[in-house]
Amino acid sequence: MRLEIRKATAEDEQSVSRICLLTADAGTSSEALHDFGELPGLVYAVPYLKLPTTWAFVLEEGVSKEVVGYIVGSSDTRAYERYAAEHWWPPLTAKYTPEGSVKPADIQYAERLRNMHTAPDANIAFSPAHMHINILEKHQKQGWGRKMIATAVESLIGEGLQGFWLGVDPRNDSAKNFYKRIGFQRIVGADENQFGLRFDEFRKTNQILFKCV
């Protein structure tokens, strides 16, 4: 099966949202946890196709054009947070309320929309940029995660950035091991689930990937 990495477009919204739902429970599907299955994507994926300071790439099956993975992020996290607080979260808080939800996961997301977490200062000190990545299970462990990260790294180097970071679900040991394996390290001063990647080090250890990006 031939896969390709390309820049995401607004037309990828449904696919990206679906992938987020299918990986939102510590890397596994959270479909059964939600009546409003769009909520994980509206928080962790879809905004990166729409808001300022964001970037996004998708992993696409070459023949069917099915999107099977994504890597998204912001090159300026604080600016992203400010814009989202003013323009993105308010309409969602009006639409999704704890009182209008039944399942605990939907209630948690509805409450989160009203008190959206912001990045720790230690993360911002490491880099202003952050990212999220998810790939459907059948396409994992084939090197695509590393290739998608290389694509994002090359793009952000062009913007003058030197690194980015992400937060990992504390239950997702598989993800933590993957990030550590490719060069992510714990961020000093942040909790144990915050990891950062220095682009220069990643490029040194993955030179063959950058010849292909």
Automatic annotation (TrEMBL):
Sequence ranges assigned to domain N-acetyltransferase in this UniProt record: 3-207
InterPro entries listed in its UniProt record: Acyl_CoA_acyltransferase, Glycosyl_Hydrolase_84, GNAT_dom
GO molecular function: acyltransferase activity, transferring groups other than amino-acyl groups; beta-N-acetylglucosaminidase activity
Pfam family, one: Acetyltransf_1
One of the GO biological process terms: glycoprotein metabolic process
Source species, domain of life: Eukaryota
Name listed for the protein in its UniProt record: Acyl-CoA N-acyltransferase
Species annotation: Pholiota conissans
